[in-house]
Write a structure and sequence with these properties.
Layout: H1 33-38, H2 59-65, H3 70-74, H4 77-91, E1 96-97, H5 104-108, E2 114-116, E3 119-121, H6 129-134, H7 140-158, E4 164-169, H8 171-180, H9 188-196, H10 198-222, E5 226-230, H11 239-245, H12 247-258, E6 264-267, H13 275-280, E7 285-287, H14 294-301, E8 306-311, H15 320-334, E9 339-343, H16 353-372
Parallel strand pairs: 1-4, 4-5, 5-6, 6-7, 7-8, 8-9
Antiparallel strand pairs: 2-3
Length: about 375
C-alpha cells in the first residue's frame, strides 16, 4: 500500500485564497468502484468503506488526537487530511470520507458547540423561538472553509486514487442535537417542539437546510465526488412525523446536490419502516443498518436505487472464519451490482484494525467471486 508524504508546515489561515480544485477522477490508476456502484454500473468487485473509518480504533489516529482537541483537529486542514488518509493506507478501502463532524456547520450558525470523546454538547440549547431566530445562515467558505481545504489536501495526498466522500447531517438530526443540548434517549425536547410549535420547528429546519446545501456544494466544489447525508436520529420519528418534518428537507437537499452531478447517499439508523419514504427523496444510494437484511431492503427500494451496508459493527469482534461468513451472506443477498459494502453504523473504538483490514480484503475477494459465479 502506498504511503503518503505530509508537509505539516503548511497552516490554514481563514480567508486565505484556497488552491484551485483538482481535476475530476480519471486515469488508469483510479479506483472508481464506489462512484460506478452508486450509479448502478458494473464493477470488478464490491466497493467497501467504513463509517467512522478515520477514528479512535486506529493507533495512528490516537497519536495525533492525543495532542489536540477534537474540534481543533476538525478545523486543521493538514491534520484532518492526514487522518482522512490513514484508513486508505492501512485498510485499502475504496473511498476516503473527509474527517469532520456533522455539527461543524451548526457552530457556524452561531450556537456554541463543545465536542469531545463523550459526544457533542450545546451549553445553551435552543429552547425558544427567539433562540432559533438568532441563528444565522453562514457563508460556507467563511464559516467552514477549512473543510473544503481538507478535501483539497486529501485529494492531493492520495493523488485522486479513490473518491473523497463529503458529508453533512440532516436537518432533523442536527436540530435534535441543538434542541436537546446533546444526545438523548427520549428526544422529548425536539419532539415537543415538533408537536407543540410545528411552525417554529419548520423555521429551524428551513434555516438548517439553507445552511447545509451550500455547505455540501462547497465540498463538491473542493473535490468531493460523492456525498452522504446522515439522518442519524430520523428513525426516532414515526413514519407520519418523518414524512412531515424530515422528508421535505431531505428531498430538497438531495435534489440540489444531485444537480451538481455527484451521487448522493442517504443514511439513517432504525430506518427500515421509512425506506419507501427515503426512496422518494431521489437519493442514489440508501444506507441500511444491520437490522434490515440487504435483500429485504433492496426489495423495498427497487432496482433503481443502490444500497449501502450493512454489517453489525460488533461483528468485527467475531472470529475471522465467522466474520468471513457474514461477509459472504451480505454479498449474496445484495447481488453483484448496486451495492456498497459498509457497516450498519460507525466502527467502534475497541475494534482491532486488523479485523477491519480483514473485512475489506474479504469483501474485495468475495465480491469478485460473486461476479465470476464462484462464490462458495
Amino acid at each position: 500500500m502506498k504511503r503518503y508524504a505530509w508537509s505539516m508546515k503548511i497552516g490554514y489561515t481563514p480567508g486565505r485564497e484556497a488552491p484551485a480544485s483538482l481535476s475530476p477522477l480519471e486515469g488508469d490508476d483510479v479506483n472508481d468502484r464506489l462512484l460506478r456502484t452508486a450509479r448502478r454500473q458494473p464493477t470488478d468487485t464490491t466497493p467497501v468503506w467504513l463509517m467512522r473509518q478515520a477514528g479512535r480504533y486506529l493507533p495512528e489516529y490516537r497519536a495525533i488526537r492525543g495532542n489536540i482537541a477534537f474540534l481543533d483537529l476538525c478545523k486543521n486542514p493538514d491534520l484532518a487530511a492526514e487522518v482522512t488518509v490513514q484508513p486508505i493506507t492501512r485498510l485499502g478501502v475504496d473511498a476516503a470520507i473527509i474527517f469532520s463532524d456533522i455539527l461543524i456547520p451548526v457552530e457556524a450558525m452561531g450556537i456554541h458547540l463543545e465536542l469531545g470523546d463523550k459526544g457533542p454538547h450545546f451549553p445553551n440549547p435552543l429552547r425558544t423561538p427567539a433562540d432559533i431566530d438568532k441563528l444565522g445562515v453562514p457563508d460556507p467558505v467563511e464559516g467552514t472553509g477549512f473543510v473544503a481545504e481538507a478535501i483539497r489536501r486529501t485529494r492531493k495526498a492520495i493523488n485522486d486514487s479513490v473518491p473523497v466522500i463529503g458529508f453533512a447531517g440532516a436537518p432533523f438530526t442536527l436540530a435534535a442535537y441543538m434542541v436537546e443540548g446533546g444526545g438523548s434517549k427520549s428526544y422529548i425536547q425536539i419532539k415537543r417542539l415538533l408537536f407543540e410549535q410545528p411552525e417554529v420547528a419548520h423555521r429551524l429546519f428551513q434555516k438548517l437546510t439553507d445552511t447545509l446545501i451550500p455547505y455540501l456544494k462547497m465540498q463538491v466544489e473542493a473535490g468531493a465526488s460523492i456525498v452522504q447525508i446522515f439522518d442519524s436520529w430520523g428513525g426516532e420519528l414515526s413514519p407520519w412525523d418523518f414524512e412531515r418534518f424530515s422528508l421535505p428537507y431531505l428531498t430538497r437537499m438531495v435534489t440540489e446536490l444531485k444537480a451538481t452531478g455527484v451521487p448522493v447517499i442517504l443514511f439513517g439508523v432504525n430506518m427500515t419502516p421509512h425506506l419507501p419514504l427515503l426512496k422518494r427523496t431521489g437519493a442514489d444510494v440508501i444506507g441500511l443498518d444491520w437490522r434490515c437484511p440487504v435483500d429485504e431492503g433492496r426489495r423495498i427500494l427497487g432496482p433503481d436505487v443502490a444500497t449501502q451496508g450493512n454489517l453489525d459493527p460488533l461483528h468485527l469482534f467475531l472470529p475471522r472464519e465467522e466474520l468471513d461468513g457474514r461477509v459472504k451472506d451480505i454479498l449474496r443477498r445484495a447481488g453483484p451490482t448496486g451495492h456498497i459494502f459498509n457497516l450498519g453504523h460507525g466502527i467502534l473504538p475497541p475494534t482491532d484494525p486488523d479485523a477491519a483490514k480483514f473485512l475489506v480484503e474479504a469483501v474485495h475477494k468475495h465480491g469478485a467471486a460473486l461476479r465470476q459465479g464462484t462464490l462458495g
